[in-house]
TrEMBL record:
Residues of the signal peptide: 1-21
Entry keyword annotation includes Signal: yes
Protein name: Tunicamycin induced 1
This protein's UniProt keywords: Signal
InterPro entries reported for this sequence: TUNICAMYCIN_INDUCED_1 (IPR053283)
Lineage, broadest ranks: Eukaryota, Viridiplantae, Streptophyta, Embryophyta, Tracheophyta
Amino acid sequence: MKSLLLRFGIAFLLLLHSCFASDTPYPKAISDLKDAIVKGLGFNTEGEVKITGFDPRDAEVGHSVEYQFHLEIDHQVIPFKLLEDVKRWDYVDLPIFRAQAQTALAHNNPSDNGLPVLAPFMLAGPMELWIHDADDMRLSLPHDVEAGVLKKVVLAEGAAVTVKGSRSVSLRQPLDFPLPLNRTQNGFANGLLTLAEHLRHASRTQSSPILSLRIVGPTSLTAAPSSTSPSLKLKRLAPGLVELSSPSKTKAKAVEEIPSVDIESEAPTVLTPAQFATLWPLASLNGSNANLLGFEKLLHSVLGAKADKKGSFRLLKADVSAQTYLKIGFQAEKRVKEGELDGYYPVWRTKPETVRTHFEVLAKVDGDKVIPEKVVPVNPVVAVDNVAPEMLSGNVSMSKTPVVYPPPDPFYL
């Protein structure tokens, strides 16, 4: 009976081992990611280099905010791409890892099928918003208003809304900004605040807003809480097009309270924190925000000496989006050629026949694709030499080792 149970146990372990050791095909997203990395690193999987790993069960998933900017300075376009640190990494079964795509992340955000969204932010007019992929968007002023499917929302001067559930915000038209750029003082990004006020002044002096944003997937637009303007007025201009404005008295009072900015003046405008503590049109972003200070420092480093001289630069592209990222590891194993490791190991040591290097890739999930962003080696293997005692003594036998007599111990009996 014991032998029968032993045989059954061995057979079960062999079956289990064969199941895990079988070459399970990669999901298409992981297979495409593997091919892109191998091509980018110049590896040849069918030759001397063997690539293993890319196990979806070991992939860690996290959400972050990605910033993309294109600046035109002296007819030269300079692109930037910045990524916030991922605050939390989890093991999540993404739909692209399974044979049948399902809403795997719905438990994180059921209203949006698990897609990452930006934190709520506040926008103030005058400006226009182009809405995309938001058929069920709510409009509250502050009570819900039935306005149909909105494609465009115009915010008049004095009107402010809070945007929730958006996946990305981007600039629709290039913007020109004057120089010089003020330096950061008292912990406030005075340079960016000055540029924002220049843009706001230009928007108020024109018949139509010059700032136009494209917002993807917002779930609601809510009138921003304000003591002077508790509600907003809605005016239908066309099917899918509405204008939001504050009461006329509040609007006139708001315009009077905002000092004008002399754009033609050569002297840089000095803004005090009490006057402009927020960056227009982002009324919810404070001028002392760490990201804002970092952007201003980056802009100063790019402009260089031009930041203190009269001139201008153009913002061609500005895109802020919530993205899903994943980390996954793989291993590259290369067969060592004759004499390739000479000089790296002692002459007496046996050279390894293969060299293994572990990598970790940071990739962005874009729909049903996984796009590699950065590949770095991780946990390098440190070689530990185990040397026999005779090798340390020069391979001399004990019979030839000189005898050393220690001094006598007076307490020895």
